[in-house]
């Protein structure tokens, strides 16, 4: 399983913050936004990850994350010249995907909670359980009309219908920015035609699997937090949420060095060396506390 994080886009809803720096490099409490989706892929056991960025922002991402070796992962980069729709991620990543399954995560989505559902979905995707070649996730929301909505059979986990921002939703389940697809996804993405707004649509890509009866759905557990951080208000809400969790528990969310160590991507000795190179700050102090507890 390979991973792709789509971190391009204009971020127009966050202007003027995004005039000089993309939204995925804006902070959510004490870490750049990109740390959060990257940590989710790592917690899913995914170590080979492609980061899709705008031309201007790619050097900043490379300065922040490098090649990923400090986290025990492999990071690759590709430029998206302009936003042409989410499916373009698979066109740009065609060579990267090769013959593997792939997980796409949007760079402005944040999840917090039990990720067993994600690891189980990755396992099912690898095994093509139920003859399914693509999977979306279902998240219960109060107002589904603001999202892509999925209707599905809870027993077979097969999708019945998908609608984009319907006026009369057929279910309460929204589709968040997390997707699993097989190796045919790049070919499917290249065959899509732009919608009236001039972009290819992720819904059309998903429907290509649904029309073949090979699209499944995985329910996200109740209590899992999903935050979309594309507006100033949602960015503030996300920062407040993460801040409250970290202050109450004394444990950081999406600390990539800790995730790498807990997932056994790096050793304790490597964690010590990484931590020693960090400037004196609360982030370093947190890692030093982990090292002390592990020795």
TrEMBL record:
It catalyses: dTTP + alpha-D-glucose 1-phosphate + H(+) = dTDP-alpha-D-glucose + diphosphate. Coiled coil: none annotated. Residues 2-242 form the Nucleotidyl transferase domain. Its EC number is 2.7.7.24. Pfam families: NTP_transferase. It comes from the Bacteria. Its cofactor is Mg(2+). Catalyzes the formation of dTDP-glucose, from dTTP and glucose 1-phosphate, as well as its pyrophosphorolysis. GO terms for molecular function: glucose-1-phosphate thymidylyltransferase activity; metal ion binding. This is Glucose-1-phosphate thymidylyltransferase. The gene is rfbA. InterPro entries: G1P_thy_trans_s, NTP_transferase_dom, Nucleotide-diphossugar_trans. Keywords: Magnesium, Metal-binding, Nucleotidyltransferase, Transferase. Belongs to the glucose-1-phosphate thymidylyltransferase family.
């Amino acid at each position: 399983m390979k991973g792709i994080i789509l971190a391009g886009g204009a971020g127009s809803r966050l202007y003027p913050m995004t005039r000089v720096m993309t939204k995925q490099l804006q902070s959510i409490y004490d870490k750049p936004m990109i740390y959060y989706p990257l940590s989710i892929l790592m917690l899913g056991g995914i170590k080979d990850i492609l980061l899709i960025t705008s031309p201007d922002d790619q050097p900043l991402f490379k300065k922040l994350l490098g090649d990923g070796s400090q986290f025990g992962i492999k990071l690759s980069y590709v430029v998206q010249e302009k936003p042409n729709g989410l499916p373009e991620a698979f066109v740009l990543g065609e060579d990267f995907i090769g013959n593997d399954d792939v997980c796409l995560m949007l760079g402005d989505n944040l999840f917090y909670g039990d990720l067993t559902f994600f690891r189980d979905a990755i396992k099912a995707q690898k095994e093509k359980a139920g003859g399914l070649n693509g999977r979306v996730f279902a998240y219960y929301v109060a107002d589904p009309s603001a999202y892509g909505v999925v209707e599905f059979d809870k027993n077979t986990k097969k999708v019945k219908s998908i609608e984009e921002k319907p006026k009369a939703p057929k279910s309460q389940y929204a589709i968040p920015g997390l997707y699993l697809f097989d190796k045919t996804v790049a070919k499917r993405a290249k065959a899509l035609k732009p919608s009236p707004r001039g972009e290819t649509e992720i819904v059309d890509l998903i429907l290509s699997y649904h029309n073949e009866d090979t699209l499944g759905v995985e329910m996200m557990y109740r209590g899992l937090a999903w935050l979309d951080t594309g507006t100033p208000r949602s960015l503030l809400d996300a920062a407040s949420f993460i801040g409250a969790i970290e202050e109450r528990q004394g444990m950081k969310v999406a600390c990539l060095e800790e995730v790498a160590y807990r997932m056994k991507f790096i050793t304790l000795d490597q964690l010590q060396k990484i931590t020693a190179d960090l400037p004196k700050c609360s982030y370093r102090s947190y890692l030093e506390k982990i090292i002390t507890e592990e020795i």
